[in-house]
Amino acid sequence: MKEKLHQLKLKYQGKKMAPAFNALHTFLYTPNETTHSGGHVRAVDDLKRTMNTVILALVPCLLFGIFNAGYQHYSAINGFPTDFSVMEHFITWDNFWLGAITVLPLVIVSYGVGLLIEFIFAVIKGHEVEEGYLVTGMLVPLIIPVDTPLWMLAVAVAFGVIIGKEVFGGTGMNILNPALTIRAFLFFAYPTWMSGDKVWVHGAKEGMTQAGSTDAISGETILGYLAQGNASEFSYSLSDMFFGFIPGSVGETSTFLILLGGLFLIFSKIASWRIMVSAVLGSLAMGLIFNGVVDAGWIPDYSKFYGLMQFDFWKHLIVGGLAFGIVYMATDPVTGSQTNKGKWVYGFLIGFISVMIRVFNPGYPEGVFLAILLMNVFAPTIDHYVVQGNVRKRMKRLKNATIFPKPSDGKAEELKAETV
Amino acid sequence: MALLSKKDANLILDPLADNNPITIQVLGICSALAITAELKASLVMSISVIFVMGVGNVVISLMRNLIPSKIRIIAQLIVVATLVIVVDQVLKAFAYELSKTLSVFVGLIITNCIIMGRFEAFALGNGVWRSFLDGVGNALGYGLILVMVGFFRELLGAGTLFGIPVLGDPIAKTGLYSIGYENNGFMIIPPAALIVVGVIIWVQRSRNRALIEEA
Predict the structure, then answer these.
(1) Is A145 contained in some domain?
(2) Do A188 and B198 touch (CB under 8 A)?
(3) Would you call B195 an interface residue with chain A, using a CB distance cutoff of 8 Å?
(4) SS3 string of chain B?
(5) pLDDT at position B75 over 70
(6) What's the domain count of chain A?
(7) Based on the number of CB atoms within 10 Å of its own CB, is A340 exposed (0-12), middle (13-18) or buried (19 or more)?
(8) In chain B, which residues have their Cβ closer than 8 Å to the Cβ of A163?
(9) Range of the domain at A332
(10) Minimal Cβ distance to A167: which of B185, B187, B202
(11) B198 and A191 in contact by Cβ < 8 A?
């Protein structure tokens, strides 16, 4: 198999479709080319391996999302089980089957459309297909509601890949995170499919009803309840929130699995722990400020911000997409800050602004994607000032340092004078 | 005898494509973003600018030897302001609803960079007929882009053209809407205009690579 592929590659070398072929070829196999000159650092973590590691970290979230889609659907119809047990009520064939037929089409459309566009651009521009879309294609189905129509997803993916990435020069050149560009496009283009209490549970939008009654099913997210000031109406326990048995976008609900994925990414050194830690700190800081405002009694309880402001600061991390955004999106090495100091600032502001948007704009119950996109734009500026700061520090050090002339200095200058 | 000599014809034709005020000179972007959500508004805006620029260029060209160069900007502003007020009053009298949609943007034609740009760059140094052609040509180039952007934004954002539904009825679910199509709310907001203009620039420059600036 491998030999055959190598021969095929030689045959198609220089042809128009070569990049498309090479992309498939190197996906799983190492190419047989060797370099001919110079010394080289050999490393196993090329772009494809990096991408595959992230995808590996996302698989638990995807599986959980599939079961949760089924669980939320059947619970909305039949009522939530009173004595909830994971094995009996969550990991069941019914849940899996329903989740599979609703979630997997999203994954297929996301990859199909995105990779098709990448292939077309690679063939037109005559470069190799870059692997950037592998992760994006997996992230996209996890951050949208389960009932998103497939054609909307296709349009949004096309927009995100072309306008968000290819016009800037493809993978590695994009300013904005493509997965979040796709989500932002969906959010602004089709708001009725991206928010409200009808989109998070499969079937609610079509008007399915509860078993034995004519009441339509619905499922509001916790942030949605809070934004409307109905904090007392939801009955999810802390462990529900942490393990993710709550309505939300497909793969963002389980903070537990996201945490595991995050640790995996940190230990495999794929994602920056600085960004993750500082983003968590940032969101806690903003949450603490809001809690402080409520405790000080500066805000009346009929204020429309009250519901979200009095929400315990650390709980922000376990509801909505904040955890998912911090672990998988803020750490995108292309769009984030590059300097270590910059990463602290970048991450902190992402957490800080996410919680701020959540509270102050009930129209955007989920602020994290906007916060990350905003900080993506500012990341180069942050890096610039970090680098400038370092340059200034070293200039100062140079100015204060006494430089003793070395005996060789004079000679070098003499030599220089001669050669000039 | 042709109606226009080749040189004069180029004054009109150049700004339509290879020297377009919006896509090549990147002027007048502000109004292009603000009023292009509907095709009708784009068209009226274009016609207003064609009028203001055509007449304005003629007036400035006539006065070009009388205006002291130190106060020429003020003189130009007065000419534009006068013309804009005429347009504004005409719109208020004959198309009141539309004038509300266009609101401040008609008034802001005064600050449209294309107009002052052409006064400065062309009308102050050329004869009346050529200035007229230049003004109309640039305004046409501006209008062309506005109408293109307006076309896509209204069609995709509201499913209508000139307010007439062309894709079916979104509420009664007829036409395209019966198979699940929905209007794209993103096209209604101004950032979409920026992206549409960007795509037009992209298409234009990839068709004519000589237009690509050096990095």
Answers:
(1) yes
(2) no
(3) yes
(4) CCCCCHHHHHHHHHHHCCCCCCCCCCCCHHHHHHCCCCHHHHHHHHHHHHHHHHHHHHHHHHHCCCCCHHHHHHHHHHHHHHHHHHHHHHHHHHCHHHHHHHCHHHHHHHHCHHHHHHHHHCHHHCCHHHHHHHHHHHHHHHHHHHHHHHHHHHHHHHCEECCEECCCCCCCCCHHHHHCCCCCHHHHCHHHHHHHHHHHHHHHHHHCHHHCCCC
(5) yes
(6) 1
(7) exposed
(8) 195, 198-199
(9) 47-387
(10) B202
(11) no
Backbone dihedral angles phi then psi of residue A209, each to the nearest 5 degrees: -115, 165
Q: How far is B95 from chain A (nearest CA, A)?
A: 31
Return the pLDDT at A269. 84
pLDDT at position B128: 86
Interface membership of A167 toward B (CB under 8 Å): yes
Region of A124 on the Ramachandran plot (φ > 0 left; ψ -120 to 50 alpha; else beta): alpha
pTM here is 0.83
Q: Do A190 and B195 touch (CB under 8 A)?
A: no
H helices within A296-406, ranges in order?
306-309, 322-324, 340-360, 368-400
pLDDT above 90: residue A278? yes
**Residues A110, A153 contacting (CB under 8 angstroms):** yes
Mean pLDDT of B157-186: 78
Burial letters for B133-166: b for 16+ Cβ neighbours within 10 Å, e otherwise?
Answer: bbbbbbbbbbbbbbebbbbbbbbbbbbbbeeeee
Higher pLDDT, A18 or A260: A260
Q: Which of A246, A319, A236 is nearest to A90 (CA)?
A: A246
What ipTM, to 2 d.p.?
0.81
Helix (H) or strand (E) holding A186: helix A178-189
d(CA B110, CA B131) in angstroms, rounded, equals: 18
Q: Are the C-beta atoms of residues B11 and B133 closer than 8 Å to each other?
A: yes
Q: Nearest-CA distance from B35 to chain A in Å? A: 19
Report whether pLDDT(A412) > 60: no
pLDDT at B1: 44
Flag whether A276 is in a domain: yes
Would the pLDDT of A244 be above 50? yes
Percent of chain A with pLDDT over 90: 20
In a domain, A28, yes or no: no
Average pLDDT over residues A388-396: 92
In chain B, where the domains are located: 20-211
Mean pLDDT, range A303-327, rounded to an integer: 82
Does residue A124 belong to the interface with chain B, where contact is any CB pair within 8 Å?
Answer: no
Task: Return the ∠ at Cα B45 (arms to B41 and B49), rounded to 5°.
Answer: 175
Least confident of A186-190, A308-312, A402-406, B194-198: A402-406
Measure the CA–CA gap between A208 and A214, rounded to whole angstroms. Answer: 9
Which has the minimum average pLDDT: A333-342, A403-412, B14-23?
A403-412
* Exposed/middle/buried for residue B11 (C-beta within 10 Å: 0-12, 13-18, 19+): buried
Burial of residue A233, with CB atoms counted within 10 A of its CB: 0-12 exposed, 13-18 middle, 19 or more buried: exposed
A412 inside domain: no
Position A111 pLDDT exceeds 80:
yes
